[in-house]
C-alpha cells in the first residue's frame, strides 16, 4: 500500500485492511453491519507538523439482531483497534439508517396485518404497487418509540414501472417499524383522503409534451486544456491550492485552501443539514437530517460528461463502503472544472479614453447526491479575485401528501389534490478558518445610517458598527439583512499596508433560521440551526453540528454542547459554523420535478490584498 497524504480519503485497500482488523478483534460477528465507515482524520497539529500521522479509520457498527451499537476506531498503521465505544442509543442516539433498512422496512410493513387492513380499506389490495418510504423517527418523548431503533413509514402508489410514486401519496396512514424486532409496533391511521391521481411522470411524453427543438447547441471548448492541475487529491489553479477530500457521511470536503501561499481555510465542508416539515398534525415528526441520519456522501451520483458537467472536466472517483464494510467505488463522483463567469472588471474612462474589459473565471469543485426524493448539488467556487463561494443546488421531487378540498394551512396544492408542505432546508457549513495563520478572530459588521445631528446635519452619514465576538456564548448570531450584517474573519497576526488586520468576510444570505419553536423536540435536536453563526475554538473531536449520533438523538448534542464551556475565541484557532438555506414554500412550478433552487454564502478577501489582485489578468483577445 503506497502511503497516502494524511488527508486523502480512505482507499478500497484501506477499507479492507481496517475491516480485517475489526474482524480479527471479533467485532464483526453476524449480524453486525457498518452504518458508517470512513477516514478518522488526524488532528490539525499532527498534519501541520508534517510527520506521517497514524492512519485511522472509524466505523459505526450496529448489530441488527440486538441493536447493539458501537463506534470503533482502528489504526491501519499499527493494525489494531484503537478504541471501541459502546453506545446507549436512547441517550446517545442511534446509528444512521442502513442501506438494507429500505428493503427490510418494505417487507416488514407489507406483512403487517393492521397496516394491510388500513390499505385494503383505502382500496389497495395489490401491494406490489405500493412504495414504502422509511423516514427517520426523531425523538419526541414517548419511551415506547424512543427506546427502539425505529423508522416511521409513509407510502405511495406507483401505478406502473415508470410512474412517479411521489405523485400518489397515501395520506393519514403510517407504520412505525422497530428495526431490531423487525416488526410494525404501531400503526397510525388518522384520516383518509383520496390518493391524488394525476401522473407526475415527467419523462412521459403524455405528461411533458414533445421535447422542444428550438434550443441550439452550446459547446464549451478549451483547446489548450484547462488551467488547473490535479495531482492525486491536490488541486491548484491561479494561485489557489487545496486538497480534495470525500466522506460517506458529509460528502465533499476541502482542505488546506490557500491563495498565493497564504492560508485561508484549513478545512471546509457541509457536515449537516436538516429538512424539517411544518405540518403539525399527522406527520409532525417529519424532519430529515440528511447527513447525520442518511449519509449524503454515500448517495453521491456518478456524473456524466455532457449531462452534469460541461467542458474540460477532471473527475475524481469516490470510495465508500456497503454495510458489509466492502468498498464501493462511485465513478466520477467529484467534478472539477473551470468556467467563464462573465465580466471580472470593466471601465470606459471619460478622461483618458481607455476602454478595458476583463473576464471573470472560476474553478468549480462539485458533487451531486440523491437522498430520497431530493437531489442536492454542492458547488464550491474559487474566483480570480480571491472570492470563495459555496452554492447548494436543490432539485428533485417535492415530498408530497394529500391536499384536502377545504384547504391546508401548511401546504401548497401543486397538482389536483396533491400537497407539498412548507419546509426548510437548513445546511451547516463548518469553516475551519486559517486566515493568514491559525490565530483568527471574528467581528460582526453592521452598517447603518446615523440620525441628523451636529456631526451629521443632512442625515446622510453611513457607518460600520463593528462588534468583536470574543467568546463562544457571544458568537451565537443571526443574520440581519436590514443592517447588511456580515462577519469578518481577521488574522490577529498579519496586517496590510494600511496597518489593518488582513481578513476574509463571510457574506450570508438573509433568511430565517430554524422556525420550529425553541421548546420543540426538533429544536433540541437541530440546535445548530437556531443560529446562523456559531464560532468555536478548534477541537478535533467537534466535527458534527448535531452531534456524532444524530439518528433519534434526544437532543442537545453538537453545537449547543460544544459552546457550553464558553471558550475564548479571540486570537485563537477557531471554527465558524454557518447555517444557511431556504424556507421552501412550494410552488406549482416546483412540480413534478423542481427547477434548481440555489442557496449558499460567499467569502471575500477584505484587506487581505493591498488592492484589486486581478489587474494582471490579460484582456480576453487582442481587440479587447
Ligand atoms: Cu424544498
Describe this structure in words.
The model has no long low-confidence stretch (mean pLDDT about 95). A hairpin with a 4-residue loop joins strand 7 and strand 8. The relative contact order is 0.12. The strands form 6 sheets. A 10-stranded antiparallel beta sheet has the order 15-16-17-18-19-32-28-27-25-26. Strands 9, 10, 11, 12, 13, 14, 24, 29 and 30 form a 9-stranded antiparallel beta sheet that branches. A 4-stranded antiparallel beta sheet has the order 1-2-3-4. It is built from 10 helices and 32 strands. By secondary structure, it is mainly beta. It binds copper (II) ion. Copper (II) ion binds next to loops.
Concise synopsis of the structure shown:
The chain contains 10 helices and 32 strands. The chain has a 10-stranded antiparallel β-sheet. Strands 9, 10, 11, 12, 13, 14, 24, 29 and 30 form a 9-stranded antiparallel β-sheet that branches. It has a 4-stranded antiparallel β-sheet with strand order 1-2-3-4. The longest helix is centred in the N-terminal third of the chain and has 13 residues.
| Range of helix content | 10-25%
Distance between the termini: 52 Å
Q: What ions, cofactors and ligands are bound?
A: copper (II) ion
Using the alpha-carbon principal axes, give the shape. globular
| Beta-strand content | 35-45%
Widest sheet: strand ordering: 15-16-17-18-19-32-28-27-25-26
Largest sheet report: 10 strands, antiparallel
Q: Output the structural class.
A: mainly beta
Average pLDDT score: 97
Number of strands: 32
Low-confidence stretches: none
